[in-house]
Amino acid sequence: MAIVTMPALSPTMTEGKLSKWLVQEGDDVRSGDVIAEIETDKAVMEVEALDDGKITTILIAEGTEGVAVGTTIAEILGDGEDSALSSSAQDKASPVSPAAVSPAPVSVAQPADEAKQEQPAPVTQSANVTANASPPVQSGDRVFASPLARRIAQDRGIDLASLKGSGPRGRIIKADLEQVASVATTKSMTTPMHAPSGDESSVIEHTQMRKVIADRLQQSMQDSPHFYVNMDIDIGQMLAARKALNDHAPEGVKISVNDMIIKAAATALMRVPEVNASWEGTQTRRFHHADISVAVAIEGGLITPIIRHADEKGLEAISSEVAALAKKAHDGKLAPEEYTGGSFTISNLGMFGVTSFTAVINPPQAAILAIGAGEERAVVRDGQLAVATMMTATLSSDHRVIDGATAARFMKVFKDIVENPVLALA
How many structural domains comprise the chain? Predict the structure, then answer.
């Protein structure tokens, strides 16, 4: 017997979308068979059966969003085995439509006493739970509700007859009343005072990736005291070195400016190791290698595949690895180990013509480097006006880990390497 639960497919995943079932109830499966596709915050991943047997119960319909990690989604039974799910849990199984299934975790057995029935709903349970739960069992005008739920409803002026319970046999419990309050609060915060009507606007549902990006960046800005250091860097010699490298590169190899920036940053991190770090609450971790997370824009969001040990790799290896990881990112094929971890992040918007910007730190890392476009600017050299190809780079630092002088020192080393690429070989 095997209970299939929503897996944690990445360290940042707390919930996911059950995109597609590849099996139906009654199908025989073997260990290792792919039975479902899960949309995580980063990509679409496959779920495999862990045991041989028959799919006897599917509890979460395909297309259901917000399914918490650890939620029971299906059951596989072998010959002669009995189900471990309660009858009420099996009654909720409905692979027909997402609206018919509650994403809340399914209990193995129903609680026996009122105190257990009054446990609050899991935080991942959405406002749809109340609306989609089984209707309360009624006799005439009687509404089945727990005593605590009745008291809360009376205090708040809520009509119990207008609710659908999520408790045993459709009983209205405290959690259902809390959902009503939560929905009311959310609507008051998100609904504009003068909501547009007709064709004036459209609503775009948030993907799992967008939800996680929002949570992580909000957490970063709230928890990490950001400060910013920027420098204008002459990239003339770097562009000349890039041209010479590409003129003599093997067939199919093309070094980009971004590849050279990754190498320069990795070298600078080895020389200023205080920046190559992460905040871990009671301690700071310093990394011995430059594992560079490279921000890649994909449909619906951003992902940061990692060039590991970039300090030890040549430009040709970095170029090939960046291209391969970027393709996998766009195809949604990145494995968790290819985008989790990392000691430092580079975000380059130069290809869009952006001259400078500040980036939000990718927690728990301590810094992120924002790269602007190279452009010809007027500069003064030896008292004479000249034209040079300049690039603005901005370092966002977590002040809990990095002091201002340390950030400035890193930027000075980075600038020296970019303006004299041969220093990356030292």
Answer: 3
Nearest residue to 308 (alpha-carbon basis) of 271, 261, 348, 344: 344
Q: Dig out the tokens for 183 from the structure.
A: 């929905």
Tell me, what CATH number does 126's domain have? 4.10.320.10
More confident residue, 11 or 240: 240
Question: Does the annotation count 399 as an active-site position?
Answer: yes
**Judgement on whether residues 176 and 121 belong to the same structural domain of the protein:** yes
Q: What distance in Å separates the CA atoms of residue 324 and residue 307, rounded to the nearest whole number?
A: 11
Q: Spell out where 69-215 has E strands.
A: 72-77
Q: Is residue 109 part of a domain?
A: no
- The residue annotated as part of the active site, out of 288, 309, 330, 399, is 399
Q: Are 364 and 332 in contact (CB under 8 A)?
A: no
- SS3 state of residue 344: strand
Residues 407 and 302 in one domain: yes
Q: How far apart are CA 162 and CA 190, in angstroms?
A: 23
CB 236 within 8 A of CB 244: no
Any domain includes 258 = yes
Q: Is 170 within the bounds of a domain? A: yes
User: What's the domain range around 36?
Assistant: 2-100
Which residue has tokens 């944690």?
A: 8
Which residues partner with 47 through β-bridges?
A: 36
* Residue 83 sits in the same domain as residue 167: no
Confidence of residue 154 (pLDDT cuts 50, 70, 90): confident
Separation of alpha carbons 426 and 395, rounded Å: 23
What pLDDT digit, counting tens, does each position of 195-227 carry? 565 577 888 888 777 887 888 888 899 889 999
